[in-house]
Design brief:
The chain is α/β, with parallel strands linked by helices. It has two domains: 1-113, Conserved hypothetical protein from pyrococcus furiosus pfu- 392566-001, ParB domain, CATH 3.90.1530; 197-339, no CATH class. It has helices at 7-13, 50-64, 91-99, 115-125, 136-149, 156-166, 172-185, 197-206, 245-256, 278-304, 308-313; strands at 22-31, 35-36, 73-77, 85-89, 104-112, 220-221, 227-229, 235-239, 264-268, 319-324, 331-332, 338-339. It has a five-stranded mixed β-sheet, with helices on both faces. Strands 8-9-10 form a three-stranded parallel β-sheet, sandwiched between helices.
Amino acid sequence: MKISFDLAKSLKLSPPVYPKGVKFINRLILNRDKVQFNKEDQTYRVQVNLETAVPKLKDSYTAKGFIYTKPPQVVRVSKTNPKFYKGFSGHNRDEAQEQLEWETAIYDIVEFDTPLDELKLAYTLNDHPPETPSKDEDIIKGLNKASEDMIDLTDDQKLEDLIAVIAPGFTKSRQKRIFKKYRENNSKYESIQPYGGEKANKTAMELVAPMKGDFNYDDIMGEDGNIKYKGVNRYGFVKEPGGYKTLLHDGFKLWLREGASDNIYVTGYVKDPTPKNLVEKRTAWKKELNKMEDFIYTICSKLTDMSVKDIKSKGKYPFVFNGFLPHNKTPDITNGGRATEAGLVDVNGKSIK
């Protein structure tokens, strides 16, 4: 489909305005076969919901045509062939245009001073229609990319500043939530490994510790047919600090299930660990687990009119402390520079064999 574009109107109603670090080269009407938008290159998104985004864009294009008051798609000159262009922003629009069989489209051609400037622009461009707005997970992915070699995000202020730049449409409270989510898995202390829920479960599997009840009771096979995670042949959960209602419900349900009358192993980790508070927070976590045990014995005593001592003597309490996930990454010079904590440890960071 041959679309008649008015380049002068586009420049007038949506003049090219880019931040420092981004050089605007030109705005052109290009044949779309000279521009390549690879979904694999859309590295600043966790996922692109084509099922919802593309149909909406198609409807918009069909009803309104090209919206001249909005910035066009952004491309760069191809490094391998200067006669072609690589798509930077507008992957969903490109897919919609492809389905509508557009032959041409309007593009801004840009260059970047640094990879960080490229990262910042990627999220800025997602903050206005017709682009699909960024989600929390998209911002986290951008921060993870930035932490590799662009900027030191162990500095809280630099982290907050970058979040404000790449999530400008987010409220302050939402930006703060992004900060906390990032810090769950990325400490400002090089010697400390924090955990979010997903990271904690993955680490538990790597250490052959039970998690999600019976999730990794058996071997877990990879797509290649080989064992990806070795089964633990035990039941258990990985537990963050705080309430124990879910652990009690799911743990007892598993324990009562036919064939699951073994112990329920509980592996812990702490939130917001630092070199100074690690032992203190682990101690507090362990006390809460002990309180849960006392609570269960008290309930059983009330229900049976038996003493707590007599109930304990039966030795049937199912929940067993399985140690803590490793937090302390400080190199141990007595062990070849390996992390001080490499496996499951006790409150004081001593290895649990």
